[in-house]
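[agent] plan:
  1. take the single chain provided in the ticket
  2. run structure prediction with default settings
  3. attach structure tokens to the ticket
  4. add a short note for the reviewer (M.T.)
[agent] executing step 1
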Amino acid sequence: MLTNRATNATGKRLRTTAAALALGLALAGCATKDRITTGSVSRPSSAPVETMSTQQLASEAQTLGQIYAKNPKDVNTAMRYASVLQMNGRTDQSLAVMRKLAIDYPKERQVLAAYGKALAAAGELEPALDAVRRAQTPEYPDWKLVSAEAAILDQLGKPQEARQLYRRALEMKPGEPSILSNLGMSHLLEGDLKTAENYMRQAVETQGADSRVRQNLALVVGLQGRFKEAEEIASRELSPDQAQANVAYLRSMLSQQNAWNQLEQEEKNTN
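[agent] step 2 finished; step 3 output follows
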């Protein structure tokens, strides 16, 4: 297991990556496909974007791009397209799609929330915070937006403010797995992997936990050097190839930060 010093160092190095994962989870549920109907264009795939392979994402982006070009004001298509673009690493294009949609629908909560996600992914954190706050309705607050605001505050380096909002969101939606997982990610950002894992395990054991929640648990387990366990958790949601690819990427990331050898050695020492 990592020492506190090593854990804190690893947490700091992984801050940007982990924060992006937390934010993606926070905002993923903000859009509901039935709230706005602007056309009859059906989405080419109903598979969760997070579980798609690189090849599938590329194909989905091409298909959605053609549909989007015909009707850029279709909310469902535009938001799906922006999400796929973001997963493909085309952050600027994703933001452009969402910026146009936010101009077309300046008062729609789901659009503003997704626009906030795109802004945050592009590193524009203050505008992202503004977009999410504008999406909120004080007289009828949405717990998803409260959690999303907290995730952005985490990225801004304000964990105490973020956790107050996570607790408020849990009061509004007790036991919600996505909030518990985001709270775990908040602790991960400060390098407190044990607390992060505790929250994530609560999340996965709660009814309604989805693939993203379990993948976050796999992440925090892997960051503690327990790669076999992380791969087993990931394999429950992804294909064996995808699970192995995720763990391989994690190892590569840690290796680049001179953390992999230490994690591997400490894993051996605990066996």
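[agent] step 4 note for reviewer: The CA atoms of residues 43 and 77 lie 7 Å apart.
[agent] ticket updated
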